[in-house]
């Protein structure tokens, strides 16, 4: 009997699990669930997965939710040992260590960066404001450094592997971590500087087979997000030019724009305005 996975391709833990299945040519049925539309809270879904979490896995009479649990179960059941860290007990323990911390570290990127940005697309009453962008950027900087210092501290050193915990081959820890970090960059949600170690690691994971295939839905969502951002900028353009006051020589009066934009961070975010007359 084929396995059935319940989830959504845009969901980070679901994407990691589905990527693992593709990498190992494992046949499965896929049931799409829309968490944002309450799909995980229906009586039907909760009868299968009482925790109301996605992804969910049905394997015969056995039912399991939570992405890291599903990935670990599949690796152990199918003997996909390399994805658990190989035969080395200590390597496997390091992979488990990352997975145990995932929900309170890298998972913050979805909750505090990705989710607020997407809600700004789905619901005009909850816009992704400049204040939220600033907060999201700080979360990314914090999680970047924390991840690099903890899981990639020796990257580039002789004998040190290029994947999570210094391993020489990717594991499910890399799949789950990558699906969190890469989405913010792929979507263009936040700018700022990325830790070089994290960027090198992401470039390496991106080359793993089936990457583009399992991220197709995310790329489509990116197009929607960027289109929404363009509309937001166009609205700012109208407001900015309505508020502009020009002096007799064509210069831009500082007060009108400063009052509207409330500081340099928003002025910088709006890249279509001539700023040569403004010093904030």
Automatic annotation (TrEMBL):
InterPro entries: Glutathione-S-Trfase_C-like (IPR010987), Glutathione-S-Trfase_C_sf (IPR036282), Glutathione_S-Trfase (IPR040079), Glutathione_S-Trfase_N (IPR004045), GST_Theta (IPR051369), Thioredoxin-like_sf (IPR036249). Residues 1-82 form the GST N-terminal domain. The keyword Cytoplasm applies. Pfam families: GST_N (PF02798). One of its GO terms (biological process) is glutathione metabolic process. Keywords: Cytoplasm. One of its GO terms (cellular component) is cytoplasm. It is found in: Cytoplasm. The keyword Phosphoprotein does not apply. GO terms for molecular function: glutathione transferase activity. Signal peptide: none annotated. Its main location: cytoplasm. Residues 88-226 form the GST C-terminal domain. This is Glutathione S-transferase.
């Amino acid at each position: 009997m084929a396995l059935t996975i319940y989830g959504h391709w845009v969901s980070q833990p679901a994407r990691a699990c589905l990527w693992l299945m593709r990498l190992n040519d494992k046949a499965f049925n896929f049931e799409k669930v829309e968490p944002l539309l309450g799909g995980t809270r229906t009586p039907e879904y909760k009868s299968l997965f009482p925790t109301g979490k996605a992804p969910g896995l049905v394997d015969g009479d056995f039912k399991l939710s939570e992405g890291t649990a599903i990935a670990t179960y599949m690796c152990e059941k199918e003997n996909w040992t390399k994805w658990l860290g190989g035969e080395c007990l200590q390597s496997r323990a390091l992979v488990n260590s990352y997975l145990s911390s995932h929900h309170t570290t890298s998972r913050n990127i979805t909750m505090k960066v990705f989710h607020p940005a997407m809600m700004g697309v789905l619901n005009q009453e909850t816009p992704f404001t400049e204040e939220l962008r600033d907060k999201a950027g700080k979360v990314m900087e914090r999680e970047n450094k924390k991840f690099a210092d903890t899981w990639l501290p020796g990257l580039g050193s002789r004998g040190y592997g290029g994947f999570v915990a210094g391993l020489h081959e990717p594991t499910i820890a890399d799949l789950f971590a990558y699906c969190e970090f890469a989405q913010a960059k792929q979507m263009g949600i936040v700018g700022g500087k990325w830790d070089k170690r994290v960027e090198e690691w992401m470039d390496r994971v991106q080359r793993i087979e089936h990457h583009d295939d399992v991220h197709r839905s995310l790329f489509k969502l990116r197009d929607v997000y960027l289109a929404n951002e363009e509309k937001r900028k166009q609205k700012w353009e109208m407001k900015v030019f309505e508020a502009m006051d020009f002096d007799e020589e064509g210069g831009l009066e500082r007060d009108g724009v400063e009052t509207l934009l409330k500081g340099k961070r928003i002025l910088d975010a709006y890249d279509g305005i001539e700023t040569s007359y403004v010093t904030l």
